[in-house]
Amino acid sequence: MANLTMILPSHLKSLMQEVIAAGYECYLVGGAVRDYIINVENKDYDLTTNMPLSKLKEMLPALTIMKENSHRNTGVIRANNYDIEFSSFRGTTLKEDLENRDFKMNALAATTSGNIIDYVGGVEDIKNKKVSLVKESGEGLEQDPLRILRALRQADKYNFKIDSNLKDQLLLKAHLLKNVSKERIYEELKKILLSDNIEYYLLEYKEIFFELIPALRTCDGFDQHNKYHIYDVYTHIVKTVSKTDKNLYLRLAALFHDSGKPIKFTLDETNTGHFLHHSKASLDIFKKFAKEYKLDNKTKKIVANLISYHEDTLSPRPAKIYDFYQKYDMDYIELLFALKEADIKSQNEEYLSRLKDLELLKEKYLEVKTKYQKITYNGSFLIELGYTGKEIGTILKDLKREIIINKLENDPTKINDYVLKKYS
Prior knowledge:
single chain, alpha+beta, two-stranded parallel ribbon, 23 helices
């Protein structure tokens, strides 16, 4: 456990002392104090004061007021190349301020001399590697429901355990996330999805994720009635997510890849389940999510393609591989095979032999990709031969295909001869 007296940077101490000299209180609070005790670097400094920010602005003209409302007034000033945030007391005293914060480990303060102040047992929680609420009723979660996701993220970041009361409150109040802007939610969700413990969070706190993606609730407990699947749809999805690398595109695709299965479910006469074209239904669910949560265009495109083609049967024939690359960006072919691999690993272990076939198929697609990338010519030589407009694009596409399927050697002379013979 770190010493409970911390050393404050001189520029930070100077700001605090300036406020105190004006007759007010000023303390370092929150994450910087918490991380000092944990022994994690943190240069994100938050100061709290009972000095009205309007007066603070007069004293510090460089201060920018970022938010001012009945709950919290916030201002930011740049000092020593760091942004320092000022906020008004949440209440009338420092004690009230700390008692109105979210988690005990975050409800800590430090004086200019570095003495750490703890009214709520935050130091003890850090010592016990625990995340718990300052107010057991969960009032803090109601004030800002985004704290529901932050609880998961912070527990994961520090490898802390969420205490039983907080877990109950997170699940009970998950519905309040509907009151939070989608952009703020997505910023937290991205970090949680990249956790090493994502399987645990998706299973233990599934009610939270069902609030964010309602289609997943339908997947929970949905029996697939198929020899390849020993898990219900939701559990299969969770295991697929956990078996992908920590890549946001992959994890988003895995989270949505089978979300449309319940919509497409049919049973045949042998009581075997089928999900024909479920990738289309899953894609529609993802597109709705992407629109609501305002995902960037690159993420939308990559994830959409992964979902669309995750169930396709890929051909090993060079011509078919070339044709596939005309509709799927070869830069992300490794991601598609990674998703397919995670998908298989999350099914019935009796059929894991399919992974060998998948690996051989992957090698063929990568061979074609390498060969394609070595084709460096452009349309300039065709212009010299007198070709123009759309004809150039048609010829270039034909040349690349012929080279890929081994009917034409990637040699300038032979390429010229081929063009003159076929298109003259």
